[in-house]
Design a protein that fits this description.
single chain, alpha+beta, 8 helices, six-stranded mixed sheet, globular, Chloramphenicol Acetyltransferase, OB fold (Dihydrolipoamide Acetyltransferase, E2P)
Amino acid sequence: MATAVIMPKQGQSVETCIITKWFRNKGESVSVGDILFSYETDKAAFDLEAPADGILLDVYFADGAEVPVLTNVAVIGKTGETSDSFNPDQTIRSASTASTASVAIEAINAIEAIDAKGLEKVGTASNGKIRISPRAKRMAKDKSLDYNNLQGSGPNGRIISSDIEKALSGATVGTKTVPAAGAEFTEKPLSNVRKLIAKAMHSSLQNSAQLTHHMSADVRHLLEIRQRIKSEISSGTAKQDITLNDMVCFCVIRALEKFPEANSHFLDDRIKTFNKVHLGIAVDTPRGLMVPAVRNASDMDLVKLSKELKSVADACKKGSISPELIQSTAATFTVSNLGNYGVEMFTPVVNLPQAGILGVCTIINRPANMGNNIFGFVPYIGLSLTYDHRAIDGGPATLFLKEIKDQIEGFRY
């Protein structure tokens, strides 16, 4: 029996997703777990894996298409099987297909709920505004198209980009411009993720009073522990490979417990201080920077924290992270580590509404007094704390950074 490939619903507020790239073509063999295509929401980018083994019988949307969630985008089955009943242009979904029955019921219930409200115009919200996705609205504006009388094909009659494309007679959709040889430059449109990052960074610097303090910590103890863990991993006596970043994050959590004002959100007219630390960790992915949160990190020991940090980082790189975990409000404080890149000092940008972010820099050997007028070189790790001066004053921020330094220098495992 053929299996539908359905556009997932990534979060309660997500109504449509954009297919950014197909990795498999119609007619190709696929196996469970193979990446079929990448897609983006208005918050992040993800990969969709094949839900079954077989042949990709049909593909209903091309690269760049904006697709309503819970819509069939493709069909996997055996050679000779028909896929007509799965075509989203013909039916919402076949309830007789075992793999999609529950989704079909959900879609039908949603439609019945809309009908029960007695809306006069499906594409119009209760406040009288036209339901249209941001992508479709931009496309209509660029083409000077009046969309007010269009009937949308998205959820709740929402107008999506494919509706605008259909309304534009002779429009060229989904093409790619290849620069001529010797061209002076190339251009490409920003991805949704890049736009979101740009908007968040600009908004953070524009709407807050950010200041950065720099300090260094002696990491001889951390390096000794790291070397011991590596030896235990090699000998098989330890299973969890705990990194320097794991240990620094553990120290940050302990410092936040002593300085809860740094473990807060600044909300213009109030400050929300959290009793537990939900640690955000900056992750560099092929799609751009993502900052997932490790919820309740303050309840974890070092081994558990290490596992969770690795888990959310891997999920971001694979495109399978929960959208709820990458919202800026999911974390109470963020750590961004550029030490592996050799960065000696930098100014991280606060992930609003969080009150602070710690930048972890590379380790540098510096001359220090070893005692009895004997000087030697000591490894120091750079720490760069950026904080929102609206939420924290300079004195408490300095003491908080000093506490992180003390936690690192006094670390034992």
